[in-house]
Amino acid sequence: MSGVLAGRNAPDYSASWPSTRITKVTYPATPGETNPRSGRSPRYERSAVIDLEAIRHNVRRLVAVASPAKVMAVVKADAYGHGAVPVARAALEAGAKWLGVAHISEALALRAAGIDAPLLAWLHTQDSNFGAAVAAGIDIGCSGWELERIVAAARDQQRPARVHLKVDTGLGRNGATTQMWDALVGEAMEYQDEGLLRVVGIFSHLAVADEPHRPETDQQLATFREVLAAAEDAGVDLEVRHLANTPAALSRPDTHFDLVRVGLGVYGLSPFAGQSSAELGLRPAMTLRTEVSQCKEVQADQGVSYGLHYRTAAQGTLALIPLGYADGVPRIATGGPVRIAGRTYPVVGRIAMDQMVIDLGPDNAEIEPISGGAEAVLFGDGADGGPTVDDWALAAGTINYEVVTRISPRVPRQYVNEQASPDSGATMVRA
Ligand SMILES: *Cc1c(COP(=O)(O)O)cnc(C)c1O
């Protein structure tokens, strides 16, 4: 057989080869399966590798920063693309006391997985299932309009709802306005007296905490203190007051109150434009990697991908990377970095639905030739000088939050370090 079809490029349609089985398109991955050819742990042709030890490390760091306030790990949107259930478990192991999500449906999925930690859901619609939330012991964020529905659900379930009243201190999204506040607190307290609910929390969300020099955070903080005082005057007896997100948890101890709601930091990413994860003591938990599909020699002036917006400068090699916008790689991010064999190459031409191309350039005797099967990393923890989520955010004109959150379900999540190592310090934090 000629070289191109020999060896590891030979066709293999074996149904037991994990990375080609259709069931592997869903996640989480089944642990413990081995590659039948090598006998080694599963090898995925494409995966988002989630390092659960990095999650635990980040949570321990946030627990230390927030102390004596407690940590709520925000695991909405499938834990920002990392997988809600494994991340929630790792976060709780590392000392998070609460979990937070946007939708009741997300909270119910955590309960269905057997997670019984305190859990808050804060974004609702007319059709949200408050009854299921009350039945499952899920705390409900309430901006005002939901109150009647929550009370009806509590009557139905014959169980008081646990409610966190949300105030809009300036973000202009959900939350009661300060004008509505006293009326909302009054109404909630009447229902509390009837045994239909308990107001256990008051919270608000910050608008500009990622820009620590801006004065609006001080204004939001002052407003939050005022509404807390008003609620306490009305006899509210709270378990938790909470305001801070990741940037505020890291930069504004005066916003911590009893609980900080941290999302981005749990995943090891920096919310600040001028500060890296490492500078904040955080470790990015997701590595997006695949293997080169194919390498081929082309002539100078070869057009690349739809629109032919890129042409090779000289005779050389193009490498095909089997990830595209259907996998969540932003289509606009031409130029984004791909690391192969210790070197970083920019994506050239348009990113397509399933694939994209990098130009390895003319054959270079000084570097080891790259061939199909070579590991290709779009982003990882950056520790080896390799590309990071922030590089892709820059290439796409967006923020790191969006890049990880939009990695699609077609990319299997592969979990590493599922067991906490005994010397990791987790037990120390729990004590
Ligand atoms: C998403 C969210 C958070 C977490 O924000 P990060 O910046 O990721 O820490 C906290 N609170 C609310 C209300 C949120 O919607």
TrEMBL record:
Give the metabolic or biological pathway. Amino-acid biosynthesis; D-alanine biosynthesis; D-alanine from L-alanine: step 1/1
Q: Does the keyword Cytoplasm apply?
A: no
One example of a Gene Ontology biological process annotation: peptidoglycan biosynthetic process
Keyword Nucleotidyltransferase among UniProt keywords: no
Q: Which SUPFAM superfamilies match?
A: Alanine racemase C-terminal domain-like (SSF50621), PLP-binding barrel (SSF51419)
Q: Which Pfam families match?
A: Ala_racemase_C (PF00842), Ala_racemase_N (PF01168)
Q: What cofactor is needed?
A: pyridoxal 5'-phosphate
Enzyme Commission number(s): 5.1.1.1
Q: Which GO terms label this protein's molecular function in UniProt?
A: alanine racemase activity; pyridoxal phosphate binding
Q: Mind listing the UniProt keywords for this protein, alphabetically? A: Isomerase, Pyridoxal phosphate
User: What are the start and end residues of every segment in region (Disordered)?
Assistant: 24-43
Query: What residues form the catalytic site here?
Result: K76, Y306
CDD domains in alphabetical order: PLPDE_III_AR
UniProt function note: Catalyzes the interconversion of L-alanine and D-alanine. May also act on other amino acids.
Q: Which family does this protein fall into?
A: Belongs to the alanine racemase family.
* The protein, known as: Alanine racemase
